[in-house]
């Protein structure tokens, strides 16, 4: 299915692509390189947005806490992804949080600089509008999966998505490196229940597990759980 992964990918990594060289240079001129330590917050729920971030190295989780204080992860950001612009554009406080899952290198663009770039670069403004519209569809698809698919189907889907997203910039496929707590949170289950599903997938030969790294070995079996064929 040609656009399978796009249905579940924000594609914010494409935001600064295909701009003219002068426009790219204008964007790079206002970027500030920062190092964010593992476990630190890029932004947090109810915080006031001061700018946007582009991840250059590492990965981070986007999540919201429920009324009981439990975390619900709904996206994992990785290299080149751009984030933090929704609240900024809406002139609102953040409605969610973003935490570094490992040491990050990020490019930061201050609020005033980013708003100025949108005014000065029509192509960037158009891409951002298109991207926000696409993200709405992605969130709708994720909500539908969490509500309608059983646990094994949800796990199969997110393993395929994570492998594609985390390895898209790598010449060779690597493992899916997430804590069991974060993976369980992402698919909406408990660690104990996730452990049983992972054991079942391992016995079927779908995956291999090395410590917390998960490697997909038989993609077709995972596709069968979803009743899709991924090209």
From TrEMBL:
Gene3D superfamilies: Jelly Rolls, Winged helix-like DNA-binding domain superfamily/Winged helix DNA-binding domain
SUPFAM superfamilies, per database record: cAMP-binding domain-like, Winged helix' DNA-binding domain
Domain HTH crp-type: 149-220
Residues annotated as domain Cyclic nucleotide-binding: 15-135
Superkingdom classification of source: Bacteria
Keyword Cytoplasm among UniProt keywords: no
Keywords: DNA-binding, Transcription, Transcription regulation
TM stretches of this protein: none
The protein's name: Crp/Fnr family transcriptional regulator
UniProt source species: Flavobacterium azizsancarii
Lineage: Bacteria, Pseudomonadati, Bacteroidota, Flavobacteriia, Flavobacteriales
């Amino acid at each position: 299915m040609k656009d399978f992964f796009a249905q579940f990918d924000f594609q914010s990594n494409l935001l600064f692509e295909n701009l003219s060289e002068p426009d790219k240079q204008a964007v790079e001129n206002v970027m500030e390189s920062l190092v964010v330590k593992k476990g630190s917050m890029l932004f947090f729920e109810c915080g006031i947005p001061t700018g946007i971030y582009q991840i250059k190295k590492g990965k981070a989780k986007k999540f919201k806490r429920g009324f009981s204080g439990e975390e619900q992860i709904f996206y994992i950001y990785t290299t080149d992804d751009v984030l933090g612009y929704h609240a900024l554009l809406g002139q609102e406080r953040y409605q969610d949080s973003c935490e570094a899952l490992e040491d990050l290198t990020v490019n930061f663009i201050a609020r005033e600089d980013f708003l100025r770039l949108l005014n000065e670069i029509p192509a960037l403004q158009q891409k951002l509008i298109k991207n926000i519209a696409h993200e709405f569809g992605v969130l709708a698809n994720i909500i539908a999966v969490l509500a309608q698919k059983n646990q094994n189907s949800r796990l199969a889907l997110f393993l395929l998505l994570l492998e594609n997203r985390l390895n898209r910039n790598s010449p060779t496929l690597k493992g899916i490196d997430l804590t069991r707590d974060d993976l369980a949170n992402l698919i909406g289950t408990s660690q104990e229940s996730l452990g049983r599903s992972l054991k079942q997938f391992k016995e079927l030969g779908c995956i291999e597990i090395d410590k917390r790294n998960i490697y997909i070995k038989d993609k077709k079996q995972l596709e069968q759980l979803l009743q899709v064929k991924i090209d």
